[in-house]
Every structure is written in C-alpha cells, then in structure tokens.
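Sample entry was shown:
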Amino acid sequence: MLHWSIEIIHLDLKYTWKIARNATDFKKNIIVTVSDGNISGKGEGAQNVRYNESAEACVDEFNRFVKILGTNSDALTSIHNAIKDSSASHALAFAIESAWFHYRSKSEKKSVPELLNIPSPGPIPTSYTIPIMETGLLKKFFIENNLKRFPYIKLKVNADDAFDSLTELISFCDQPIMVDANEAFKDVEQCILWIEKIKKIPIVFVEQPLPSTMKAESEYLKKHSPFIMMADEVITDTADFSELKKSFDGINMKLMKAGGYMNGLRLLKEARQHNMKTMIGCMVETSLGISSAMNLCAMTDYADLYSFILLK
C-alpha cells in the first residue's frame, strides 16, 4: 500500500513577477509525496489565482483525495477516480498524478517518457519570459540576467504600453521574440491597431491577447493578424480543437492546467492532429515542476520552461 503526504513550500522570487492581471514577489506551491516506505516519488503543484486556486485549498482537497482513495492507492485508475471525486484543482491533480509516475519511474527503472510511450527529449531550448516593467528598464534587466543566452525571449505586455515595451526590446535584443498579453486587451479593435503597428517586427507568435470569453472577437482577430496566435488561458484541461483552431494557430499547454501527464499528452496530440503548433509552458515552479514538463518536450514545437530561474 502506498502512503501519501503533502506540504506547502514558500518560494521567494528574485524580482517582482508582474503580468497583465497581477504582480507578486513570492509564490506558495505544494509538493505531494507518495511512498511505499522504500521508494518515493514527488510531484509539484503550482496554483494559479486565475483559476481560483490556492495552496491552502489544495491541502483540504488533498485530504479529501486520500480519504476517498483509501487502500486503492497503487492503481492509476483508482487515483484518477479519487482525484475527480475529491474535486481536486488542476494543479493538485498534476502533483498527485506526477508523483505516482515518478514513483513508478523509480520502481520500474524506466523514464517517464518510456512509461508514457513517447520519445525522450534531447537537449531542450527554452525561451525566457520578461515580466512587465517600466519603460526604460528592459535593457538593464536583459543585461543583468544575461538573457542573450536564451534562443527565444518572451515579453509580457499589457494593453497600454505593449507597443512601447516591444519597441524598446527590439532596439537591443537580437533573438526571436514571443509576445504574451495574458488577456490584456479588452477591445479587439485596439488589439488590431496594436498588431498593425508591430506587423513588420519578426515576432514568433502573439499569445492570448484577448480574454478567453471573447470567442467571436478572437476569431475576428485571427483573420486580421499576420502573426501566429497562441492559445493559453482559453485552454485548461479540456479543449474543443475544431472550435479552437478558428481563433488560434497553436496552444500553450501547461501541465498545471491539464491536471496530469496523460491529459497533457492528449491535448498535445490532439493539437497536432489539428495541425496546430504546440508549446509547453509553466507557472512559477521549482526544478521539480520544470523537469516534469521536460518529459513531454519531444511532443512540442516550443518550450517555455524558465520559471525555476526566477527563484531566489
């Protein structure tokens, strides 16, 4: 019989992490451990306020999960059922399932990609994401953090200064740039005007500029955008790809939203079946969560797995 436990960890950041909807100087994540008394596996959960998640709520959800699971703790089907019946958040669901996979990886002496029957990734080039900051500070931030070592730079923007920030970045950055708005534009016409102003800049893609609820507007925006449009907040643990491709050209799949390796892998495979680009992203995570995401990188076009570098 396997034994399960959970702990909350406090993560101080090197600098303020600011995106369009919030800013913070620290994060609280959870670590789930499963053990047979000899071999153990750990999984990380990085909660997101966007989806009303918190570390404290995850502890309550986890206690319900353990009670429902009972003695059926060895079977993955039983674990999945207990996750569902306990109404576990997506981040907790991933922490639980990944802990089990990491335990099985050790006990069977197989890699996680082998257990999932997918190719193992080789070296993984990741982008680095720059948070929102005051205009004029980007170059100093870029130099201090030695960002020239990354093959891609992702820039977080808000609606008001998206053009100024991007213009400042391209004045000294030679790498390809990804732009992430985190639903910052509430007016599709304002977004189209912004895209018109930046259309000559060689941008890799624009990520989720409009709120996930603005479905018709997102379809309209795609028709007027010269750039690849990537979905993020609009995709969690489910996605209707026949509808999604009307608004986007690709997806940013995050395991903390997908709720598990198996579901995350399913989303990536379905995206590819619909000829959409694939990227695997992250919340603010330790090297445990990031190394977990690396297991699926053979299935993606891009990796955005930088966030452990944010930690003090």
In short: The chain has two domains: 3-116, 127-310. The first strand starts at residue 3 and ends at 18.
